[in-house]
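Hi! If you just cloned this repository, the fastest way to understand the data is to look at a raw example. We've pasted two of them here, unedited. The first protein comes first, obviously.
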Amino acid sequence: MNSPNREISDYRVEGGCLTLLDPYVERAADTQLYEFAQSESRSLVCFVLAPRQMGKSSLMVRTADRLTTNGQNCVQINLHQLGEIDSESTLYYSFLVEIINQLDDSLKIGLHDNLSNYWENNLNLAPPLKFKYFLRGEISPKLQNGQLIIFIDEVQNLIAWQLQNSFLGFIRSLAQVEINASVNNILFVLLGVAKPSDLLTGNAMAWNLGEFIELDGLDGDCEPLKAGLQKVTDDPTQILKRILYWGGGQPFLTQVLCDLMSKSSNFGTTDVNQRVDKLVKNKVIDNWQQNLRLSLHLPTIEDWFMNVEPSQKRQKRLALETYINLLQQGSVSFNRSSTPQWELLISGLVKKEGNQLNIRNPIYQQIFDRPWAESKLPQLQEDMNMSDLSTIYNRQVFVLIDQSGSMTLDDGKSKTRWERLQEEIVGHLAAIFKERDKKTKESICESVIVSTFNKSKRKLNHRTITTVRELATTFQENEPFSGGNICPILEGLIDRLWLDGKTEITKEDVDAEEAKAALFIIYVDGQFDDAKNFEELIQKTALKINDDRIVKFIIIGIGDEFSNAELFDEFDIGHRPTGAKKSNEKKEYKPLFYLSTGLPANVVVFEELQEGLEEQSDFIDLLKRQIDGTKLTLDNVREGFTPHLKDFFDEEG
């Protein structure tokens, strides 16, 4: 039913979610999302990430209605309607309240009281676990077949609340350990205006966590949209075809254009395209500010680039530079690892067609033209001069923990090395998650990939953690045994999760946000049993970068004895004595590692846990070593540096 203040129209031109009574054109996404919910062999989560006013909420409403009609249990949660969420506890409690509210009255009896009591009586249990256990223990048994599909709309709010890592980490944990549990009958569909990298840290993990459904524009005959056009023509097909050309199938823009045409004078049978073109130019391209609907729609595209925090200016500028290149070339190859390209996709300016990126429609191309884009670049210039590589911020962080048998030694202390190491790493991770750039407020990372290594481990097995408390599981599930072989695990992390299929990562890739610089933090108990292979792996990795700030391998020695200490010190300075002497009788040193450019590389840092890392600030300083431009000297290597290598610094000086 139309509200009293709503202008009578056959089309939904106010924006927002279409009702079940509004004209709706089905797309491939409708079938894909329905099949995701019905499939027996399915992922736990499905993502529908798209620009504003592309029909995400309408897709959710239609799919949920269709599933409900077929007897399935669906819950729709709009995060905008939850208000301001300031904690994990509030988020997960609110989810459960919304789920209970949307159950049939016969099913929700007593659940609100049970939830309140359960939440208050389990204060020491992490909120995500409370959410999982209450779903599994109280809600799922009440449902037919225990199945529940939870649609969560406007997921970009999770980013604004800084809770995306908590929630996606929770879903990731379900996917990893709940394969056969009853909670596996609960599916999540996440919809919103966000890049995959906003929600999921690490490109490989983002694409492996769940299914992604692309929300394409409208195309085909679009039969439901013809009714209003029949008021002004006997042949609405030709008008609609031209409308789809101008709007590129953008759902909201298509509704607005259909509304404009349906309120014009009657169309004849000739010159239909010219008539549509003239209306589009006069009513949209030249005078869109006079149209209330368009004056609300089009500025949101500009706001995506310009209404941002200072720390986001750089990536928005790179996106606009990519857009200018696209305007010049007409089309560019799509690279799913390219942050600038994803910025453009989520802004709505461009669309993906096959393996190409194209401007979404001629209207956008004429309004958001090259002069518009170039006029915005100076406003995004701030802080563009300093490369990200000169800081430790915005990096992928990997932690590798020695799980060899010697970690059971106690060194005459009350706790074993394994137990003491857990306490130390907790402090180090707390420092990583807490650290922020004083100027841009940028973090080192939002999540850390953790893995253990020993001689028996050949297959990569890792855990992504977003909070310090999650580390305990890694130590509980991995008891020390066997020898200290690191290479199979380290090589897997480098190739599969960092390089992610790339043959190299360049400074230009990092600047363009098509790849991230990385920190590999390695805790080792005295030695690598495969030290020679480790050295060769670092040499091979260095040859895949053109700037040695792109990756750092930070070796932290544990225990009282280091049989590899001299080797690690050589790695730290990036050189090794040749055995020969120079004309001045000083030892000759040769570089150990080389960049792809042929220049020597310093990519390894070595420190002892008990000597140089007494405070969290010491750990952060260690991460910065060789990255922030400070010259490597005898003063900033470990205190017990190998004596006969000290003359290297005399030569350097």
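Ok, and the second one:
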Amino acid sequence: MSQIIKIEKVNLWYDKGKPTEVHALKDISIGIEKGDYVAFFGPSGCGKTTMLYAISGIDRFQEGKVLINNRDISGLSNQELAIFRQTGIGIVFQQFNLVPSLNVLKNVALPMLFVGITSEKAEIEARKLLERLDMLQYADRLPFELSGGQQQRIGIARALANNPPIIIADEPLGNLDSKNAQMVLEFLKELNEKDGRTVIMVTHESWSLRDVKTIFYMKDGVIIDTEKTKMNPSSDVIPPVITLTGPNPMMVVKNTKYIEQGAIALDALDGICTVTISGSVDTSTLGSYIITYTSIDKAGNVATDTRTVKVVLTTFDIVATSGPHGTVAPFGITLAKYKSSQTYNITQDDGFKVATLTVDGVNLEVANTFTFLSIDRSHTITATFSDITPPVITLNGADPMSVTKDSMYDELGAVALDALDGKCEVTISGSVDTSVLGSYTITYTSIDKAGNVATKTRIINVTLSPKKDTDTDIDIDDNIKYNKEEKPSIRVLANYLLRGSMDEIRRFETFVNDKFDEKISKEEFCILLNKQFKDGGVGLRKKKAEKIANYLEEIVENRKIIRRIYSILDENPEASISDEINSIRNWLIEGYKGKMSQLKVMAFDQVISDRIRDFIPASKVVEILDLSNNRFGVGFSFRAAQSMAEKLELILSNENDKSNSDNMLEKKL
């Protein structure tokens, strides 16, 4: 088989020529065949991960060659290496490295978007990958909402995004429990054996080498040994799996011929195995008989299974119904109301099927009595009726629902329908305080006549500004531009800066509006705020009026930065906006007394950038700012997170809606 990777005399140093110099890889020369399953095995610090980074082009080696499909990657530019890592290899990291602000589906679709695939097609392919890893039900969740094993499976799906021929796994089991580690190993084996991909894994756990075909043993940056593994029958400890052909138990009518249905045995290594059958059936005598099936594979593993054959007087067909099927105990049965017809199999104490009972249930309203005839005597059973299906509750309106702060919340209610009773009454519990930002839960409960209970909830998010589809200057076509409306919602701003009577707030709104329209200067604005209400002002103290005026100037300046960001991204979605993000962040943390570590600053900048691009909704900002660093958050206190989120929303456009973010993502990717 041809070599897909060839490494020739590779040497790699860190801090070469310095007192801290480390010779990480020493004269490495190996070949990896196409379709092989390879592991670099050794203690921590032996150079295993460095070997992977050299193969993937992440770390630059100083001497030697690494040829991937006969192409030397040491001569590739940074851009060419980026393309190679996007399409030539898929990397599975120990720390998962998922984008915390993107949901599972977008994390998997992201690599496809970077190579020019449209967002629509990328999400279709991402869903297929998630379905293959049994993770499709988590498509809309954020990474911190998943377990470690689930995050690693998402990492594997992302590595497969552009269908690379080579999969590189850097300690993929390091952060997993034993159950999830086994699942990951099974999938890596499937990628190698079923897909034919070349899999390269780094590990220091010997038990994880079970499926590996080639092992490179490493120590102190050197390959000290190479082992080719092979599986043989003596290592097979799993017995065959026997599958019976035909029903179990099987009913045979007295004095008829018994036809043996047989069984099939399959072994993981040997394929189909021989099955021997023991036991016999005498159809002239009523009773139960046992047939035993035995299979032995090449490794000597034994598997057995049995079938029960009952010789009875007669047999009956079973008519399946959607209603509950009761059991004669001894002669009482429960039926579902209003069903057109139900057929039950009636059995005697010896387990032989002797009769069936068909009940017409169209007009069954009360308990009734039915008679059926068995082989030897007539029996009477009493039927009772019950409705076991709870109502189905359907909410009116959206879930979740967004409500503007200080607006009127209108409860839209819900409808409950029961299969038997029709419409059911719905009770509502929970309340919404629109004067306080946050999420509220409304619970809807319905009980039908049979006492079955159904519940459903709706989430109400009280936000500074709702998302709108009108009054926007966005062009709805292939050349959508970001909204550059300069003024934020005057009502929201007024409520944020001033806690007064409605008359004071309305007058304050007018002054703020005039200030934004540059009808009045900063000095005139301060005078109007300071003037008594009866004289046409707002009645604020001079210092507070100046403070609000200065704050308003800051909002205007930061909104100009936002406009500049949108303009930059319109022209080049890949352009750097780090300076602008830095200015906005410094304004948001003014007055914050807590410590700002480098990690905290980087995480906060990422949240600001994602919110500007509308990758995350306003309702999620406080939650992410409040989350700790080890849960992919920023680590602010809840009060600080809430204050900074409110300030951020004040400088963002009202029309910064989803259509903008979807278009931005498509243009970027």
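That's it. A detail worth noticing about the second one: The mean pLDDT is 77.
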